[in-house]
Amino acid sequence: MPRATRASRLSGLLASVALLAVAAVGCGSSGSDSSSDDAEGPGSSSASGAFPVTLDHKYGSTTIESAPRRIVTVGLTDQDAVLALGTVPVGTTEWLGGYKGAVGPWARDELGGAAAPTVLKDTGTGPQVEKIAALKPDLILAVYSGLTKAQYESLSKFAPVVAQPKAYNDYGVPWQQQTEEIGKALGKAAEAKALVSGVEDKFAAAKKARPAFAGATAVMATPYEGTFVYGTQDTRSRILSDLGFSLPKDLDKVIGDTFGANISKERFDLLDQDVAVWIVPDLTTAVTKLHSDKIYADLDVVKQGREVFIQESGDYGNAVSLSTVLSIPYVLDRLVPQLAAAVDGSTATKVEQPAS
User: Fold this and answer.
1) What phi, psi does 85 have (nearest 5°)?
2) Which of 29, 68, 254, 313 is most buried by its number of CB atoms within 10 A?
């Protein structure tokens, strides 16, 4: 499967967020797939007495009566939390492209020897309702999503649907809450909390080892249709804040109530932080193009060598974009040394690319 470009991924997200409604599609279940009816991984179990469980979300609440066994993830990163909790979904939704079953290398151990999930697509017009119905799910997860009410109601005709939490922007749920919500839905709330604690311990260790991060400012951006900056409620930006960095104080005021937005050159001051992290299509021509902009090139963050570049189409870039309970440890191993080099106070220090 060809890898999706950054533009197609972002445009798909933006289209999903902007979509106001989608016509309800008749949901037949005549199709079948090769996934086993028992989709749970080895050693998986649900806590006794965990069901029924009711979860609140943007469109009300959903009650799950018993432990789900055939899970379809509509949320673009929800599969990682499901896998981390010992269950293999029967269906996942493709966002990044290039991975069998939409399972990245950071999650392959959790997949084990199970069959890869059936991959569905959302090109900006909403979930593939009929194909989801054909997988005969008993739970549909749309926690990291921009699901509309019409889409929620359409999917709810044939399975319980857990939509995005109402407390956050669409595509804005933190990985911690995402993991814990999915843990509750699977009857594994305690296991989910333990997973979250384990990753938070990694953040704490990184912060302790790199005291320069505390109080430093940082921003996450990508050259999508100009200059696209991620807001405070985006999972990528939260990696920086969870490491101790402060995000630009006017960031959300400029981009509005969304996960990110394009900014004008008049607001390039948002990029002039102690470190600017760029997710770029490639590490050569894209960087050269950025530096050819005289306004950007004149910022201190550029002149003092405080930029971090991440290639968006590689495993590292994909892991950053997902920012899940499974992908974040993979990211920290690579990002923390780069950030440390960027903020060490010496313009002579080069920010190196990870070895792999």
Assistant:
1) -95, 10
2) 68
